[in-house]
């Protein structure tokens, strides 16, 4: 029986490996502040991955749709009950993650006899002023990170860093128009998606290669081609939290027509 | 878990009680207590949609509690509830409705239908019957909004028990409403055009005149007070959403088209 703790550590390790594999095929989610608010972007096949949580909070998710739904409902319940009982300004992403979502995900992850949540979640929160915009990302084990300016979720933390790095390269994004922000977000998404593909190929033929391939950041041509291939059977999904939107709800999912206008190159390739 | 997307149910599960059931002994004491009440509110169709207006006064017995009350409350981007009766209950209802409609939209990923919204109002009123009859919580609202399925802005009014009636041309509520109900009927039937044909500005002028008439004959309705720049709240609902008429516009229309006739 005294072996149990070691088995538990091993089981958690196995679980990590299992979960990492689950996300390899997933589509990264990118979010960033721009001049009029926050933009969220991903590329999906049918099932939406971007959602409205509360007046100023949006969610982007990766992973199993059923798990994502369950946690989305948890968040919605929490946010609306809190917003009703106290006030809408007391509903903050940080409190919901720290005291609501993260403990639930961590517990499921560590209870090795039960199924973990196959999810990674990004919360974007529109501040009353641009400098108060905040982003939170939660991993499948319940660890979370807060950031400013932009955030991303992808299959591994390394790729996440790579995506964020590509967004941070342009310091002018905070003052960018929706069009510029959308273009940058799509580029960052493609960099993440390409890195995930490379990573997956790496894992598959790890036996042949001793060291991981030195992944230099892909050039514009490669990104362009990848986007063209991906968007043949998937669609860009965009949502914004607009600071100047009338009323209390600031979330708006962009309609197909608007998305086509934002990405004229991509919509043309899709039509041809 | 929330397949139903019912926020009111969720609140109840969390132990929230909307309307305290009034016992007989509590109710007896009420006759002497002075409860805050109002009001004249009106909603009428005009050329582009629906206009909803309300005076600003809240009274308790013959005391004026407050002269800057907002009784025309936006529930979401396309619906408005104007309230008459006990403000404490009415504001609570508005808060519940606001959260209910948002919660439904966010959980179910589609807007609650206009009929669904009407039912939600009726349900709250029904839950409130005990308090309404005891005299501590009577609310008689007018609900107006844009019905996207029918492609038209609509008006509904309720009794304190929750029965819902459509106001085809207009609806009124509150202590000052008997005065203007007759005027509305007269205007709609015998003026050169029905209310529903009025352009925006004419509709606003009529609303200002109607509320001024109500204030003339009902002490619980607040009129325009030019010295303190106090005007009624007027909101316009169209397909594009809700628009609050700015005070400057009310001011100039009042000077030009209402005051000189008084």
CATH topology of chain B: Glutamine Phosphoribosylpyrophosphate, subunit 1, domain 1
Which shape of chain B, going by the Cα principal axes? Answer: globular
Question: Looking across the biggest beta sheet of chain B, what order are the strands in?
Answer: 11-2-3-12-13
**Superfamily at the CATH H level of chain A?**
Aminohydrolase, N-terminal nucleophile (Ntn) domain
Beta-strand residue percentage of chain B:
15-25%
Structural class of chain A: alpha+beta
Q: What is the residue-averaged pLDDT of chain B?
A: 90
CATH topology of chain A: Glutamine Phosphoribosylpyrophosphate, subunit 1, domain 1
Number of strands of chain A: 10
Helical/strand content category of chain B: alpha+beta
Return the CATH architecture of chain A: 4-Layer Sandwich
What do these coordinates show?
The complex is a heterodimer of chains A (272) and B (262). With 272 residues, chain A is of the alpha+beta class. Chain A is 46% helix and 21% strand. Chain A has one domain: Glutamine Phosphoribosylpyrophosphate, subunit 1, domain 1, CATH 3.60.20.10. Chain A contains eight helices and ten strands. A five-stranded antiparallel beta sheet of chain A has the order 8-1-2-9-10, with helices on one face. The longest helix of chain A has 27 residues, at 178-204. The N and C termini of chain A lie far apart (65 Å). Chain B is of the alpha+beta class and 262 residues long. Helices cover 38% and strands 23% of the residues of chain B. In chain B, the strands form three sheets. In chain B, strands 11-2-3-12-13 form a five-stranded antiparallel beta sheet, with helices on one face. In chain B, strands 6-7-8-9-10 form a five-stranded antiparallel beta sheet, covered by helices on one side. In chain B, helix 3 (87-108) packs across helix 4 (114-127) and helix 6 packs antiparallel against helix 7. The chains are: A alpha+beta (272), B alpha+beta (262). At the A-B interface, strand 3 and helix 2 of A face helix 1 and helix 3 of B.
